[in-house]
Amino acid sequence: METYTSDEPDTWISQFCTQFGHDYFVEVAPEFIEDDFNLTGLGSIVPYYRQALDLILDMEPETTVDSNDLPLVEHAAELLYGLIHARYILTKQGLHAMAEKYEDTCFGSCPRYYCDNMNFIPIGRFDSPGVETVRLYCPNCNDIYLPNSSRYLNIDGAFFGTSFAGLFMKMFPEINRQVQARTKEQFRLKIFGFKIHETAPCGPRVQWLRATPRNQNQLLELKNCEFSIPEIKDNEDDEGEINGNGNDEDDDEIIKDTERESDGEDDDGDEDEELDDGIVVEDGNGDNVSEMMSIV
Amino acid sequence: MASQNYVSDSESEYSEYWIDWFLGNKGNEYFCDVDVEYITDRFNLTGLNQYVDRVGTLVDIISDRQQVNEDQPEEVKRTLEDNAKFLYALIHARFIITIRGLNKMLEKYRNGDFGFCPRVYCKLTPLLPIGLSDTPRVESVKLYCPNCEDIYNPKSTRHAAIDGAFFGTSFPAMFLQTFPELVPVHSTDIFTPKIFGFQIHDYAKITRWRSLQKEKLIKDLQSKNIEFDENTPGGLAKPVPEYEGLSKSSSKRNRASKSRN
Ligand SMILES: [Zn+2]
Ligand SMILES: [Zn+2]
């Protein structure tokens, strides 16, 4: 059997990754693909599975492919590679390969002004292929964006998957430090320096979206959000309120962002489940859990 | 009205109105066509002489009453041209908050000339240019999204280099006050990253806190009898449930956008 190292120039994989618009992809190590365990379940999703796999690994097909089928096999190989890629980037090796791209700003950076060019992480909102194209996650504003070039408009989000961004941030705490170092300032629309009245249609309606706890009251409120959204008390003292009808002058009360609780803090919550490396997770609509493997 | 033509630069022979030439320059897509009557009314230029010399000559150049004298040294001509562009842009900031200017910008907004919000949940809401300062040479132009109430850097480096003072701090608010029906119904979705289908605790916690702030806003609006339903401009849309199949949610979205039109 022929083997290739990943830096050999003319493998199918390196060709795929250097194609126009494929710059978000890393080269999956052939050893990863050769291990059948890592491909569990893909045979039932990808047509021409065997032939596609042979193509990806630059192996002579066991049975000759009908020339009419060649474009179909090529297409299947791209789908198969994308799905393997989504699994590979969750491994230690894959995470590190992606980290190199992250540091080089290969995925672009957040266009939000206050995010100050925070680097993006690619993300899929769905793990099934063919649902939605790739989106970009910003760890600073905790939001997702469309790629700014049409060249990424046909890259399937499932080739990066729903879990990668979260795992990536857990793996590289430096990202959290970059977030902490950034401003928590928010934009407020004004006319000649005056804020818009709350009754106007363009008055503040989504200031909560970018808000961060800024004073003792709000930090306490955040603590109360540990497991669920607390009831709103009627006589709530809206000190330094978010929704923007009070004055701005509470800024001197800003708590240093470093006081924000750090990752992996112990919350001894019974409802929480914990992943093996200490990541605290919660019950979501975990449709895809059974299908994914914990390979880190 | 003077109908002399402005020769755009020494090499090119074809001539056109100065303003058309300016607007046709690559990178000037955000600017609208300022009425010549507005530019030639000295009252509208009050105070601009603190930023640029020879305002009178520059106005004549912009309004095609006078051409840049070809006999002058290249450097002098270049300075005059640059100053004319600068003055036009400063007048532009004042013009676009007049009724005429707002209507011209409305046309450009409808054209998508300022681009669309890159945020996924804003579903391509058109953006509006904004300055963070009304003083020139402080900060480059940003784009305001009326859906997420946030500001973004322009996509192209050419646009990112434009002075924000050429649009000013008040323009988007004036625009949306003048055309309130254009204020979109706000998306209320908050993204929370997941690992293997499970939300990450710290992120889920801050999402819950933000949802709490949203609930407080809703309560406040209700107590003041301010309308904010999903059929009211500036209202709050119903959150789209996560993992709802795209086919399901897109049919809902189509219905919503139809009812808005
Ligand atoms: Zn961001
Ligand atoms: Zn937006």
Automatic annotation (TrEMBL), chain A:
<comment type="subunit">
    <text>Tetramer of two alpha and two beta subunits.</text>
</comment>
<feature type="compositionally biased region" description="Acidic residues">
    <location>
        <begin position="262"/>
        <end position="280"/>
    </location>
</feature>
<dbReference type="Pfam" id="PF01214">
    <property type="entry name" value="CK_II_beta"/>
</dbReference>
<dbReference type="InterPro" id="IPR035991">
    <property type="entry name" value="Casein_kinase_II_beta-like"/>
</dbReference>
<dbReference type="GO" id="GO:0034456">
    <property type="term" value="C:UTP-C complex"/>
</dbReference>
<feature type="region of interest" description="Disordered">
    <location>
        <begin position="231"/>
        <end position="296"/>
    </location>
</feature>
<dbReference type="GO" id="GO:0030291">
    <property type="term" value="F:protein serine/threonine kinase inhibitor activity"/>
</dbReference>
<dbReference type="GO" id="GO:0006359">
    <property type="term" value="P:regulation of transcription by RNA polymerase III"/>
</dbReference>
<comment type="similarity">
    <text>Belongs to the casein kinase 2 subunit beta family.</text>
</comment>
<dbReference type="InterPro" id="IPR000704">
    <property type="entry name" value="Casein_kinase_II_reg-sub"/>
</dbReference>
<dbReference type="GO" id="GO:0005956">
    <property type="term" value="C:protein kinase CK2 complex"/>
</dbReference>
<feature type="compositionally biased region" description="Acidic residues">
    <location>
        <begin position="234"/>
        <end position="254"/>
    </location>
</feature>
<dbReference type="GO" id="GO:0005737">
    <property type="term" value="C:cytoplasm"/>
</dbReference>
<comment type="function">
    <text>Regulatory subunit of casein kinase II/CK2. As part of the kinase complex regulates the basal catalytic activity of the alpha subunit a constitutively active serine/threonine-protein kinase that phosphorylates a large number of substrates containing acidic residues C-terminal to the phosphorylated serine or threonine.</text>
</comment>
<dbReference type="InterPro" id="IPR016149">
    <property type="entry name" value="Casein_kin_II_reg-sub_N"/>
</dbReference>
<protein>
    <recommendedName>
        <fullName>Casein kinase II subunit beta</fullName>
    </recommendedName>
</protein>
UniProtKB/TrEMBL annotation, chain B:
<comment type="subunit">
    <text>Tetramer of two alpha and two beta subunits.</text>
</comment>
<comment type="similarity">
    <text>Belongs to the casein kinase 2 subunit beta family.</text>
</comment>
<dbReference type="InterPro" id="IPR016149">
    <property type="entry name" value="Casein_kin_II_reg-sub_N"/>
</dbReference>
<dbReference type="GO" id="GO:0005956">
    <property type="term" value="C:protein kinase CK2 complex"/>
</dbReference>
<dbReference type="InterPro" id="IPR035991">
    <property type="entry name" value="Casein_kinase_II_beta-like"/>
</dbReference>
<protein>
    <recommendedName>
        <fullName>Casein kinase II subunit beta</fullName>
    </recommendedName>
</protein>
<dbReference type="GO" id="GO:0030291">
    <property type="term" value="F:protein serine/threonine kinase inhibitor activity"/>
</dbReference>
<feature type="compositionally biased region" description="Basic residues">
    <location>
        <begin position="250"/>
        <end position="261"/>
    </location>
</feature>
<dbReference type="GO" id="GO:0034456">
    <property type="term" value="C:UTP-C complex"/>
</dbReference>
<feature type="region of interest" description="Disordered">
    <location>
        <begin position="227"/>
        <end position="261"/>
    </location>
</feature>
<dbReference type="Pfam" id="PF01214">
    <property type="entry name" value="CK_II_beta"/>
</dbReference>
<dbReference type="GO" id="GO:0005737">
    <property type="term" value="C:cytoplasm"/>
</dbReference>
<comment type="function">
    <text>Regulatory subunit of casein kinase II/CK2. As part of the kinase complex regulates the basal catalytic activity of the alpha subunit a constitutively active serine/threonine-protein kinase that phosphorylates a large number of substrates containing acidic residues C-terminal to the phosphorylated serine or threonine.</text>
</comment>
<dbReference type="GO" id="GO:0006359">
    <property type="term" value="P:regulation of transcription by RNA polymerase III"/>
</dbReference>
<dbReference type="InterPro" id="IPR000704">
    <property type="entry name" value="Casein_kinase_II_reg-sub"/>
</dbReference>
